[in-house]
Amino acid sequence: MKILLTEDVKKLGKKGEIVEVSDGYGKNYILPKKLGIEASKAVMNEWNIKKSSEMHRKQQEEAEAKKQAADLKGKQVVIRTKAGEGGRLFGSITTKDVAEAMEAQLKLKIDKKKIQLPDTIKSIGTYTITLKLYTNISAELLLKVEDHAG
Question: Which domains are assigned to the chain?
Fold first, then answer.
């Protein structure tokens, strides 16, 4: 019996997979607990359409990320903040600060979770930050931290 899983089932498969199970297991366990539905032709067609549209969406997202990475090449973001003696900052620069500066200066809205700082930024200087735009697609950006007066 072919079953389209609607939930993850331990030692069988993940949600959205089509698996082959014995008739008894399917009728007595999977179907009554609503862990899956019988994979009829109509269900299979719907699943194939859904899978192809999801694949198309992922390809579009990947193309968008590649375009964004190319646009970011060689760009820099400047953050001006208060600094004390020796260029030490009062506090540190966070990914939220970088995301806000990118939106203001580059008109690019990037989720702060996608920004990777090299280390905690606690002094004035120039840093290279990495943006994880998509799976296996990242871009590097220069971050320049300046004193308010500079």
Answer: 2-67 (3.40.5.10), 68-147 (3.10.430.100)
The Cα 45–Cα 89 span in angstroms is 59
Local confidence pLDDT in tens for the 150 residues of the chain: 999 999 999 999 998 888 999 999 999 999 999 999 998 899 889 888 988 999 999 999 999 999 988 888 889 999 999 888 888 988 899 999 999 999 999 888 889 999 999 888 999 999 999 999 888 899 999 999 998 764
Nearest-5° angle of CA 13, CA 36, CA 10? 30
Rounded to whole angstroms, how far apart are CA atoms 116 and 89? Answer: 19
Structure tokens of 118? 């090299």
d(CA 120, CA 94): 8
Q: Which of 79, 73, 84 is nearest to 143 (CA)?
A: 79
